[in-house]
Specification:
By secondary structure, the protein is mostly beta strands. Helix content is about 0%, strand content about 65%. It contains no helices and 10 strands. The protein has a 4-stranded antiparallel β-sheet with strand order 2-1-5-6, with no helix packed on it. The protein has a 4-stranded antiparallel β-sheet with strand order 3-10-7-4, with no helix packed on it. It is elongated and about 60 Å long. The N and C termini lie close together (about 10 Å). About 10% of the residues are buried.
């Protein structure tokens, strides 16, 4: 069975055993959480009622993504700005979609 869940403003297609990286969620490694915003669920081409489906996941780790470098420059004006950003992530293992 699979489900489409929304967390952190993004949507993910998940099934039991999948590993996904999502925007930071509260919790520590080893904790089990329930993903609540289920948009769609189904199995083998047949759709199920998403209100009756629950998705449980285990937090593997809290991590940071790759660094994104923001560089701004204006020609001939001696204007240069360099900034970096690393987004906070939570790594999840999907335990069950039921």
């Amino acid at each position: 069975m699979f489900a489409i869940v929304r967390t952190g403003g993004k949507q993910y297609r998940v099934a039991a055993g999948d590993k996904i990286a999502v925007e930071k969620l509260a919790g520590e490694a080893g904790e089990t959480i329930t993903l609540g915003d289920i948009l769609l669920a189904g199995e083998e081409g047949a759709l199920a009622d998403p209100a009756k489906v629950t998705v449980s996941a285990e937090i593997i780790a809290q991590a940071k993504s790759e660094k994104v470098v923001v560089f701004k420059k204006r020609r001939r004006h001696n204007y240069r700005r360099k900034n970096g950003h690393r987004q906070q992530l939570t790594l999840l293992r999907i335990l069950s979609v039921a």
